[in-house]
Design a protein that fits this description.
2 copies of one chain form a homodimer. Chain A contains 15 helices and 5 strands. With about 350 residues, chain A is mainly alpha-helical. Chain A has 2 domains: about 5-195 and about 305-354, Rossmann fold; about 215-300, Tyrosyl-Transfer RNA Synthetase. The longest helix of chain A is centred in the C-terminal third of the chain and has 30 residues, at about 305-335. Chain A starts with 9 loop residues before the first strand and ends with a helix. At the A-B interface, α2, α3, α4, α5 and α7 of A face α2, α3, α4, α5 and α7 of B.
Chain lengths: ~350, ~350
């Protein structure tokens, strides 16, 4: 569908290409994207450029995982006919918008960004923060506005980045004198981040507490077996606690039979329901959920050329979209656009004569 | 000449497009460039992107002066057959290299850069420095390395920026494992910056003490008349001081008859030579110097389309050059290059199988 006749809201989302995706990504974003691709114009960004802002020492990892994340997208049901999957580093207009936006935001504003502050701390950068990392809110504003996205699914902790984007949007629109760029709103998922199987913080590959989307049946069985429950629930006959019990958190996330889950919770609380029984139920659900994903993923992985073709053709389409935005912003600001130097000779003549 | 057979050293230089150039630019850089274009592969960058880092509120000025500066280049004798004149914002590879390099330099290193420190102070930015301004040393490193320049003519105060560039070059080459990028050396002109006609600091349009390259004969006469000399040299018969006397500084810069200038200085020092006589000599020299420049400039200004054609075709050539560097750097780092996704399917298959 041509850009101008497609009236669906535009979503931009994506993932840093630092590792294959896992069940936490599935619960928190991937399955929403599969649903949203029907009602929205959806762009999925393989964010290799952003991944470099804190992985400059290991670019090969960033490259390798472009294919891994693309495989994950296709395996969970992202349909390239409905969703545009594109490679961030293949979109030079985003780099150009980023540099432009950096002129419209101060260093102190970037430093005050709560997301940046927390992530600097989490990554232990201290004073030696890479400049690219400090600047990434401007890069994110470029990503969002480059696609003219109005809906950006993010975790609650990322909401300040959307606010930062909208500040830049307002500043540019004010200077241009009309709303060239739309403001975006954060779409915060109703469920929080999935905890890791050890119950220690969110699921994360680096914490070794993740179930990857390519997990084998044995991997899944082992992960469920060692899953954190209620450490004080030593006998099946005794009452147990559901809150913070990872098995129940996962049932909440993946068991479609809500009534059955509530009944299990009540049973567990009053005693008489052992961990093993609850884990069996969860294992069945996860095996059923992951089996088709794993199989599709394995089949696609046999043909990386096909997967990269999808990424390439998505990137081409995204190039047009983002280049059009860049041209519009540059022209709105009264800057010269190289592609149009010829057309503007007359306009220049006028302005220099004045 | 194709890139690989041209063994001449590569020079990158250029100007921020914030205003037409003046006699200070001519003395400090333009006339050197006219000479260097014979022995060097010279690229002149119309630095509109960089100009925005502290002119975001007035992009129209930045746009308008693209043509003005290009006119100045051609008027002084830059030959587009020998020198590539190109528009910075027409070179997306430079934006991409900039973002990449920002990952290889820390915020504290940028803040310690003496040039940045001084310019922050001079522009009165304080804590509200635009992020783009703080990052401009990385952009400059992208400019220099994008063209693989080894010689960069800069004022003495800009030498730390070349050192910063070479730090990034060394860091990248170390990571890539071979010298993909050359180090650059600063070419610092033997003559210092030309003072303004009022003797207060360097010549600068914003200080109102500049003689533009398009100055009319009357402008030149007036400028020389009000030129700062020795305020204590009230009568021609008395001894006068040559040091800090702008008329003599300009004679040093523009009078090719060195012996005559030395004789004039001696005469002035011992007394008996009036300011009016020295100014007449300087005025004759400046009129002779600027008349052909002014005439060529006026003729070219009649045909902005022709001038922009030169810029456009130079930008096209520069696009190839800078894109080749970006590809080489990305591939050296092991990153995926969009243009080559297809070629790399096999390489990816190998690396993911490992």
């Amino acid at each position: 569908m041509p850009l101008d006749t497609d009236q669906r809201p535009v979503i931009l989302t994506g993932d840093r290409t630092t590792g294959p995706l896992h069940l936490g990504h599935y619960a928190g974003s991937l399955r929403n994207r599969v649903a949203l691709q029907h009602s929205h114009r959806q762009y999925l960004l393989l964010a290799d450029t952003q991944a470099l802002t804190d992985n400059a020492a290991d670019p090969a990892k960033v490259r390798r995982n472009v294919l891994e994340v693309a495989l994950d997208y296709l395996a969970v049901g992202i349909d390239p006919a409905k969703t545009t999957i594109c490679l961030q580093s293949g979109l030079p207009a985003l780099a150009e918008l980023t540099l432009l936006y950096l002129n419209f935001v101060t260093v102190s504003r970037l430093e005050r960004n709560p997301t940046i502050k927390e992530e600097i701390q989490a990554r232990g950068f201290g004073r030696d923060i890479p400049a690219g990392f400090l600047c990434y809110p401007a890069a994110q504003a470029a990503d969002i506005t480059g696609f003219k996205a109005t809906v950006v699914p993010v975790g609650e902790d990322q909401a300040p980045l959307i606010e930062q984007t909208n500040e830049i949007v307002r500043r540019l629109n004010r200077q241009i004198g009309r709303a060239v760029l739309p403001e975006a709103r954060a779409l915060i998922p109703s469920v929080g981040r999935l905890p890791g199987v050890d119950g220690k913080g969110k699921m994360s590959k680096s914490q070794g507490n993740a179930i990857p989307l390519s997990a084998t049946p044995d991997d899944i069985r082992d992960a469920v077996r060692r899953m954190y429950t209620d450490p004080n629930h030593l006998r099946a006959g005794e009452p147990g606690t559901v809150e913070g019990n990872v098995v129940f958190t996962y049932l909440d996330a993946f068991d479609e039979d809500r009534a059955a889950v509530e009944a299990l919770k009540a049973h567990y609380r009053r005693g008489g329901l052992g961990d093993a029984a609850v884990k069996r139920r969860l294992e069945d659900i996860l095996q059923a959920l992951l089996a088709p994903i794993r199989e599709r993923r394995a089949a696609l992985a046999q043909d990386p050329g096909y997967v990269l073709d999808i990424v390439r053709s998505g990137t081409r389409a995204a190039r047009e979209r983002t280049q059009a935005t860049l041209d519009e912003v540059r022209s709105g600001l009264g800057l010269l656009a190289f592609e149009r130097i010829e057309d503007r000779a007359c306009a220049l003549r006028d302005s220099t004569a004045a």
